[in-house]
Design brief:
The chain has one domain: Collagenase (Catalytic Domain), CATH 3.40.390.10. 41% of the residues lie in helices and 14% in strands. It is built from seven helices and eight strands. It has helices spanning 2-33, 53-61, 63-80, 86-92, 122-136, 200-214, 238-249, and strands at residues 44-45, 96-97, 108-112, 144-146, 155-160, 169-175, 181-189, 253-254. The strands form two sheets. A six-stranded mixed sheet has the order 1-6-7-5-3-4, with helices on one face. A two-stranded antiparallel sheet has the order 2-8. The termini are far apart. It binds zinc ion (ZN). Zinc ion (ZN) is lined by residues 40, 209, 213, 219, 229.
């Protein structure tokens, strides 16, 4: 009996060590896989997801092309700097053009979670549909289709009663290292943080603004633009249109060449 004891204890310890390793690995995986909640302006890159392998291979073999693409992107950004606010995107993403990848005509799936808060009314969902139409009608390759299954949605839109501070909407964007947006969560408030039901025009302009973030647009410093932080209009300005158009002409990804040794 005794001579079986030592191997048994050893085996027991081994099992415990292994179990702990598995638990630790699982925990790390779960932490890494969880998208980090983020604010509108400091949306969080999803660094836990690597670019799909075939893409990575293709990118390596096209290093020269990529360099040229980055050069062309930088030139376009400089050329359009005065008539767009993309500089704000480049600053906030550390020189990454961030947008939905080209889908060759396939639409971005949007789920609108209707209701859920007191004071909600169907017209609020109409404002969101109107907002999506405004971006889609620019003819820059963006197409949206509404889906009811939230698990299949690329963009999820929902309402909350209010934010705890002076804000009426928020968009959390997730994108990968190649600047390709993976998903967006848009939260729209029904009331101000002081409890007042938001007027219709404010709801529409906030919906246009937040869906603008959902397609990857940054803030504008000009109050005539929909993407001005304290948005006052739901009508796309020329700068809004041009910024979205230039964004969707540029390839997603870094615009700066990584210099050897620089991080
Ligand atoms: Zn904003």
């Amino acid at each position: 009996m005794r001579r079986h004891l030592l191997p048994l204890i050893t085996l027991g310890l081994l099992v415990m060590v292994l179990a702990e390793r598995v638990l630790e690995a699982t925990r790390r995986y779960l932490v890494a896989a969880e998208p980090v909640a983020s604010e509108t302006r400091s949306a969080t890159p999803d660094l836990s997801r690597k670019a799909a392998a075939p893409v990575a291979v293709a990118t390596r073999s096209r290093a020269g092309d990529d360099r040229l693409a980055r050069l062309a992107a930088r030139e376009a950004l400089t050329r359009e700097a005065g008539s767009t606010y993309l500089d704000s995107l480049i600053l906030s993403t550390d020189s990454v053009v961030r947008r939905w990848p080209d889908r060759w005509g396939a639409p971005i799936k949007v789920a609108i979670v209707e209701g859920g808060v007191p004071g909600w009314s169907p017209k609020m969902a109409d404002y969101v549909r109107t907002s999506l139409d405004r971006w889609e009608s620019l003819g820059i390759g963006l197409h949206f289709s509404l889906v009811s299954d939230t698990s299949k949605a690329d963009i999820l839109i929902r309402w909350i009663d209010h934010f705890d501070f002076d804000r009426a909407g928020q968009t959390d964007l997730t994108w990968d290292q190649s600047g390709r947006v993976r998903r967006a969560l848009v939260s729209l408030a029904v009331r101000t943080n002081t409890g007042i039901l938001l007027p219709d025009d404010a709801m529409l302009s906030v919906a246009v603004h937040e869906t603008g973030h959902a397609i990857g647009l940054p803030h504008s410093a000009d109050s005539n633009d929909v993407m001005f932080p304290a948005t006052r209009t739901g009508v796309l300005s020329d700068r809004d249109r041009r910024t979205a158009a230039v964004l969707y002409r540029l390839p997603p990804g870094p615009v700066r060449d990584v210099i050897e040794g620089e991080r």
